[in-house]
Amino acid sequence: MLNLILNNENIGTHLSPGMPLLDFIRYHQHLTGTKTGCNEGDCGACTVLIGELRDNELQYRTFTSCLTPLGNVQGKHVVTIEGINMDTLTPVQQAMVDQSATQCGFCTPGFIVSLTGFCLGRQTDPIAAIDGNICRCTGYKSIERAAATVKELLVSRNEEEPIDFAVDHAIVPGYFKGIKERLELLIAVNGEHAFENAEELQMNTQLVAGGTDLYVQKPEELMEIPLNFAWNAAKDITKQDNIITLGAAVTVSDLLESPIMQAHFPELKSYIKKVSSTPIRNMATIAGNFINASPIGDFTIFFLALNTILEFNNGRILPLAELYKGYKELDRNPDEYIQRITFELPSLFHFEKVSKRTHLDIASVNTAINISVKGSIVSGVRISAGGVGPVPLLLKATMAYLTGKKINENVVAEAIQTAWKEISPISDTRGSAEYKRLLLGQLIKAHFITLKLL
Amino acid sequence: MKNIDSHTHVSGQSVYLDDIPLTQGTLFGAAYGSPVAHGIITSLHLEEALQEPGVVRIFTYKDIPGENQIGGIVPDEPLLAEHHVHFCGMPVAFVVAQTREAARAAVKKIKVTIDKLPVITDPRVSTEFIVPSRTFSMGDTSQAWEQCTAVFEGSADINGQEHLYIETQGAYAVPQENKAIRIYSSTQGPTAVQRATSRVLGLPMHQLEVAVTRLGGGFGGKEDQANTWAALCALAAWHLKKPVKYALHRMEDMAMTGKRNPYVADFKIGLDASLKIIAYEVTFFQNAGASADLSPAVMARTLFHCTNAYFIPHVKATAHCCRTHLPPNTAFRGFGGPQGMFVIEAAIALAAEKLQVAATVIQKANLIKPGEEFPYGQIAHSEAHNSWDKAAELYKLEELQQAVKTFNANNKLYKKGIACMPICFGISFTNTLMNNARALVHVYTDGSVGISTGAVEMGQGVNTKILQVAASVFSISPDKIKINPTNTYHIANTSPSAASATADLNGKATLIACNAILTRLTQVAADCFPDTTITIKNEQVLADGQPTGWDWKRLLSEAFTRRVNLSEHAHYATPEIHFDNNKEKGHPFAYHVYGTAILEVTIDCLRGIYTTDAVKVVHDFGASMNTDIDRGQIEGGIVQGIGWMTMEEVVYDKEGRLRSNALSTYKVPDIYAVPPVLEIEALQTKQDNLAIFRSKAVGEPPLMYGIGVWFALRNAILAYHPSAEIPFTTPMTPEKVLMALYSKKIMEHAKEAGYMAIDQ
Fold first, then answer.
1. Strand pairing partners for B270?
2. pTM of the complete model beyond 0.95
């Protein structure tokens, strides 16, 4: 049995833990305010809030319920638009009404949930909170105005606890104040993970972490097959000397919010802004991005340049660069899963990504560079490139060419020529092969220009 | 006044198709679409699919009791493929099962063998025109070229656009007694659904009740294309005598439905020394897809708007409706108008580039003036100059242009572009007979009012506007009025909610109905307060302007007692309009909407990416009756137009398979894609017009402001390299920008320009 709190109700269910949360909400709980839009986490119509106890704190994040397995909300608080509604409109709802920020209305509950989530956290940019919500009536200007009003609501909050503040200001119903205790009790009674989740994976079971890729690929299959959830996997980010270690369940949002990462990657926020959307970042794990093996995975490219080392559950150590053997083909046994990710702090680092739509899109080409320069001579360099071959690439020939060189325009031009020889892009919806070739060259230039090496 | 649905919208209580509580015993459908774009079915194997648990039955064309035909304009569209398949995704079979999951699982088990035939995706190589080609002409272009000092020829290739309403298509058919069927449909055209289903089932229309509460977006995509799903569900419900529902999965919707018609066009433009456009010839090849659908009507509007907001004395415009093997393309906000406008703007941009003048100079010199004639014979009550001049003055166009020049002179890696986009859009269905509507108004004895019309609410706020009409006529509080779901049992023979005309047509019908009731009520009061002039104001009955002590409710009570009819069904047909299809001349539009937008962009010449920085508009509202709703329509339309011109790229492969088949591969604007500056100033016009309360239609026209972003991007690229070759191909994706900036020819220039440097 799987236990959760849905809005103000404790629920136990024997339904398949592989069922998408969206279907559970709409078709089993008959809460129809959460809408089905795209079934792949790309529109935000199905956005819900997931409240989770972490380090003894109740933390709410937005999830797209279409990609969330029911199993992943075990021991958590799931909030739909119905769980936000009160007798009168909340100030978030009122702001959307006042700014005429709703046209056909189909995307609206998703926006309300995202903006309410903003009020329950400590983020400062309300627009970022709705970066995963698509409005096809394209009424974004009025939504922007509503979001600005919502931000104003929090001006007087200061250090007050966000949930208490939100209840006191009728942004969410009063029952939110009791959720933390209820979740603690729920977990105490049922265990954090109420059904079997073996430490050792059995053959033929599918490991599910965030679900953001698996539920795009094969949602029907996941309803039928045995699943293992990554509940026990570590979510911590630690630093020892100049080595950073990520637990296997670290999400993109965890990475973004990590003081360690922020300290060593000053541009982290701008890089991550270009990667998917807030709810997807809340769900997706870095390890999942590696195992997905997309040739264009943003974090695969990011971490490839960092000389990242993977540690599997059986203790085997493998450099990330050696994980990829061919298109979606990995050096990994079926019973192996990532337990730890480590990398050495870079000297100079930069990440570039270009996609058809600047945000919430898959890259046409992405690339990262990790470079050390001593007295204008390149002493060490790693350059990764995505979207230009069957696997995420490390541009080894280009790296070899650059090492020991003094950087100038001719050297960079020659490096690009070298890179062109070691890539094999194909034409697809993200661009023609010719474009990707040209674009990678431009982005390599952009690395050197942005890092002020040119 | 705020949208009357906004409270239920923000609390998630608005009901869309998939939210309707299910009747017990409801079954679920899923369509099997052809995996091949063109071919002959040699065998269809359903056996394995029928073995799937939960499958109840699989329907094919053989199960159709009436006619296997849903074509609205031309009968060329079977509901289910018989022997030929004409596009990838063409419905071949309809699985009905006990659950959604079972129906979808069974679809995957269907096997078909198809002998493939050649696939045509390019309208230029199409071998068949679906309807006879049409030509609009004025003056004599063949003689006019001699008067020109400069003549330019070119071509344009305009991509389609996926509607991507966030609520997918769907229907729910529930059998009623005496073989009637109630169909809930996510449709803009309840009557179209009723008509198509009637034909397929061989049932009279009065047996089919089509009900629509609202749509989660339509944009034209649910004007005719909702028919298929409704007819399939009704077919299954008719056979099984059980309710059948089908809400499409996103990928089914994208693969099986048509989009905005792509066009290719060849043009020739001639100007005299004073930059007056003397002659314009254009030939449009419309990519209609596999069947006519609404393409013939879309094609007509392309011709109507081929000169946009300009007066050109000699025009010859021809359009061909080309059959290809894509899903049947269809209505999309603007309905062919935007494609026609893009081509004339391309012709002007080409002329401007060759003549080394700013396009704005040519644009302004040729704006249509009041009293001048459109190529189809209608005389313009033009606001083109007024809106252009107001925009130029208000937003300081010359200063903006100078600032862009200065920026570009001082920056190597970033270039700005600016463009103006005047618009002129005709309001009315171009098929004159469709310009009529009905309203049914009931006033209840407690003073509350219920209104039914043929209008379908899909976010455009039409129900709010209709409510405003009634509240204004009766002078009662809006909360006394309810707008009922659209239903073919209440309002018959409706035109679809389309052509921006829904509020005008249904609003006017409501106005007539309310006035009729008001007249009767006033008479009741006049009988009780003889020799006075009766008015009703703020729910009070006034005699000669003085309170009578009667309120609205008292008046109704009196009227009811006197057996006065408190209901009215009214009909409105747009006056003045006519069109002669043989001469291609007439007065097809009730009025035109004008406006001018100034658009500014910045491109990153290193990466080929760009931002839309500002869109500043002067828009001809007439006299807006609801500025909240109209502003939303304009802002939304502009951004949707920008999406069409920039990132929204419909991609089919040579086999006719849709490659941009999900939200991950077809990108619509997100909140960051919206211009940071979006200013709208009203051109409040004094001229009388046929709009409801003189509040001009606002649904479609603003989309066309977005076209300007393409030309602003082009100007920015030209600022980087003045002789960059930029084909008139849409959308202008980052790929197209980068390829234009760094095409081989340009590489040499780029080196000279020192693109390796960066500006701080």
1. B151, B279
2. yes
